[in-house]
Design brief:
The complex is a heterodimer.
Chain A lengths: L2 H16 L1 H4 L6 H7 L9 H9 L2 H16 L2 H28 L6 H15 L13 H23 L6 H19 L17 E2 L2 E2 L3 H22 L3 H11 L1 H6 L4 H27 L9 H14 L6 H19 L5 H15 L3 H17 L21
Antiparallel strand pairs in A: 1-2
Helix pairs in contact in A: 5-10, 6-10, 6-13, 6-14, 6-15, 7-8, 7-13, 8-9, 8-13, 10-13, 11-13, 14-15, 14-17
Chain B lengths: L2 H25 L1 H32 L6 H19 L2 H22 L8 H23 L15 E5 L3 E4 H23 L1 H11 L1 H6 L4 H26 L6 H16 L4 H21 L4 H15 L10
Helix pairs in contact in B: 1-2, 2-6, 2-9, 2-10, 2-11, 3-4, 3-5, 3-9, 3-10, 4-9, 6-7, 7-9, 10-11, 11-12
């Protein structure tokens, strides 16, 4: 056994000892849920009981807020802040799903979204009639999403061939190379200019690009993505994926096909990013190589990390902060220096709170709880890591 | 892989390349050789930059995504030094030293405290690359800066067979790249520090246990790795040009070189740089709007058949 093999075996062993204690919590809540059925009042119908177990006051509050929001906010806040934050959050959600539950940080999620956007522009209508085919939206959108999802799975298949930190290198290389391809190719992707005037279709007589319809459209898909991820991580596939994240060798030994699970995770993330990409191209009304440039590849990572990767709500929080900063940091700082601000903020988050804003919130709650129960000295501090489903009943 | 498949793939990949070479030689001999030379000199630059990247990654498992920013920083510092003094060698020294010091500061102030946390280190380098790129944009503006080569390398070298004339500076890059490769190889294989670095690549814990100050070894490696990026920056400032965005281009090149060549291997970096440099220039010369596709194809082929790179070892 060579030194390198030995080290790998030792590392894997050390990981196996270090991780599962905290992470196993993620799988645990299934059992208490089954127990609590006996405590619930028997007079309630089953579906109401199901809802009352899962929905708490703050869920209702947040839901009510996002539904009422466009009626109280100005069109600017509805479209530029609300709409944009939800779209970017949806794309970052795909990264959260991959990174938080699959343990794979892909920088190519914006590339997948960009592929969907380019496909919408090429198959649909744009300012370039010699390239755009002008097909109707109900053909274009499913086609674009299908192609982008396939590309997402392909990127996944390429990057899961090596493990760990290599993923970030390979996906970054793919993303940047895609950007250069878009920039230099004129016959198919129209080079520098990209595609302008990619119009949102008018369906049912509603202009879906006007603020309020667009907001609800994006909200619907953001919620769909959120609940899809919430649902998926409880399915056998999701549980196996989390097992693979924690210890791929063990899962392999248990008979799970590690590679297949990872590629499927990439495909699911690709689907979410593709939907986000279609919505983003409608938001901007155009797509250019700049939309899939390195800056945006990294911005998606920043959004996901800023919010926190341990829960699907994280990317949406991160996107709200990001969009607010993008729009209002210019009043405080120079507009030109936005990158400096966002870079410094990202650095601070990575250095001081690797679990993002959710991690900060969790620590704050832990501290408050510790203040309440000072007398109970033996109470262990709650895990610093924000584990999905671990803290709320 | 059985012998049959080995031959099959060698033919499937090598056959079209050979056909292309014959066709290109028959139609335009000069273009072919000029492109080849362009590719090899570009490969020399890629190798200089990527060898620093692969050195740091091999020892510390630190994917330094700020490597491109260090490249650009070295280029701008060299530009300033050359403008002030007019002495190209001083510019090279300034570029090397400036980038090396920034790299050293990064290692000593930040990475030392998060050893073994690959992902977190990588995210820190991403944040640093955004910050450095924006500071450079702030200081030097968005216009193109071009450093002129030193007088003794200025202008073309005439009287060459087939291609007639070729830029002296670019031609000089070829021996320079080889010299740096050989120097790096000698340093890693024949000196004590190099031995410590190689030992650290194989087993960091064991090296530390045998009484070596691993942090010092890490700091030296980071110094050299970042310095090579800055050194490449000054060369690139003449060969290419300096403009915001070049950092990403060289970062992409470094990433592909180490993915293709094998992570952490200096010889692999040379092989990867040669493949990428030649493929890129041939792409630009013969299929200008699709040249990046060749980069994709190389990446896909290598990852499909040798996921750890051509000369990569299992980590």
């Amino acid at each position: 056994m060579s030194a390198a093999q030995w080290r790998k075996a030792m590392n894997a062993g050390a990981q196996a000892q270090a991780w599962p204690r905290q992470r196993r919590v993620a799988v645990a809540p299934a059992a208490p849920a089954a127990d609590s059925r006996s405590y619930a009042t028997p007079s309630l119908p089953a579906w109401l009981r199901w809802i009352s177990q899962r929905v708490s006051a703050r869920h209702v509050l947040v839901m009510a807020f996002v539904l009422i929001y466009p009626w109280v906010a100005t069109p600017f806040f509805t479209f530029q802040i609300g709409g944009q934050a939800l779209v970017l959050g949806l794309i970052a959600l795909s990264l959260t799903f991959l990174g938080g539950y699959g343990g794979m940080i892909s920088l190519a999620q914006m590339t997948v979204a960009g592929i969907a956007g380019y496909m919408v522009a090429i198959f649909g209508t744009s300012s370039m009639p010699e390239i755009s085919l002008g097909w109707p939206w109900w053909v274009v959108v499913p086609l674009a999403i299908a192609i982008a999802t396939a590309c997402g799975a392909l990127i996944g298949w390429l990057s899961v061939r090596t493990e760990g930190i290599y993923t970030i290198m390979i996906t970054l290389a793919i993303g940047v190379a895609f950007h250069y391809l878009m920039q230099q190719n004129y016959s198919l992707f129209n080079g520098w200019q990209g595609f302008q005037r990619v119009l949102t279709p008018q369906v049912l007589g509603i202009d879906w690009r006007s603020p309020i319809p667009y907001y609800y459209l994006v909200l619907f898909w953001a919620l769909a993505g959120y609940f899809l991820v919430k649902y998926l991580v409880r399915t056998p596939f999701g549980i196996a994926l989390q097992g693979i994240r924690d210890n791929p060798r063990r899962m392999n030994a248990l008979g799970f096909n590690v590679i297949a699970h990872r590629v499927v995770a990439y495909a699911v993330a690709g689907l979410i990013a593709a939907v986000g990409g279609v919505l983003l191209v409608w938001y901007n009304g155009l797509i250019t190589p700049g939309s899939v440039g390195t800056g945006w590849l990294i911005n998606i990572l920043i959004i996901a990390v800023l919010g926190g990767m341990r829960h699907p709500i994280g990317p949406f929080l991160g996107a709200i902060v990001f969009v607010l900063l993008q729009n209002f940091a210019i009043d405080v700082f120079d507009r030109e220096r936005f990158n400096l601000v966002i870079g410094a903020m990202f650095l601070a988050i990575v250095l001081f709170s690797p679990d993002g804003l959710l991690g900060l919130w969790q620590r704050l709650r832990a501290r408050l709880a510790a203040g309440d129960a000072q007398s109970r000295l033996s109470t262990p501090r709650p895990s610093r890591r924000f584990v999905k489903g671990g803290s709320q009943p | 892989m059985s012998r049959f498949w080995r031959w099959f793939w060698a033919l499937a990949i090598g056959g079209p390349l050979a056909v292309f070479a014959v066709w290109a030689l028959a139609t335009n001999e000069r273009l072919f050789f000029v492109t080849l030379l362009n590719g090899l000199t570009l490969a020399a630059l890629y190798f200089i930059v990527a060898s620093g990247f692969t050195l740091v990654f091999g020892l510390m498992r630190n994917v330094n995504l700020a490597h491109g920013s260090l490249y650009l920083l070295g280029g701008y510092l060299g530009y300033v030094a050359a403008e002030r003094t007019g002495w190209y060698l001083l510019a090279v020294a300034t570029g090397f030293a400036g980038a090396a010091l920034v790299g050293l500061a990064m290692q000593v102030a930040i990475f030392r405290f998060m050893q073994g946390q690959d992902l977190r280190q990588t995210m820190v380098t991403i944040a640093l690359s955004i910050i450095i790129a924006d500071l450079l944009l702030w200081t030097f503006g968005g216009q193109v800066h071009q450093l002129s080569p030193p007088e003794w390398l200025d202008g073309p070298l005439r009287g060459l067979p087939v291609i007639n004339a070729y830029s002296k500076f670019r031609l000089a890059l070829l021996p320079l790249g080889i010299a740096i490769g050989v120097a790096l190889w000698l340093f890693l294989n024949r000196t004590r520090v190099g031995m410590l670095i190689r030992a650290g690549v194989d087993d960091r814990g064991m090296l530390s246990a045998s009484g070596v100050n691993v942090n010092l070894v890490f700091a030296v490696t980071f110094l050299i790795g970042a310095g090579l990026a800055g050194f490449g920056g000054v060369i690139g400032a003449v060969e290419l040009s300096m403009v915001p965005g070049e950092d990403v281009r060289l970062l992409l090149a470094s990433l592909i070189v180490v993915i293709v060549g094998g992570m952490g291997s200096v010889v692999g970096a040379a092989v990867g740089a040669a493949i990428l440099g030649v493929a890129e220039t041939f792409g630009l010369a013969y299929a200008p709007t699709y040249s990046v596709v060749f980069t994709f194809v190389i990446l896909v082929l290598v990852l499909a058949f040798r996921p750890r790179g051509i000369l990569g070892r299992p980590a």
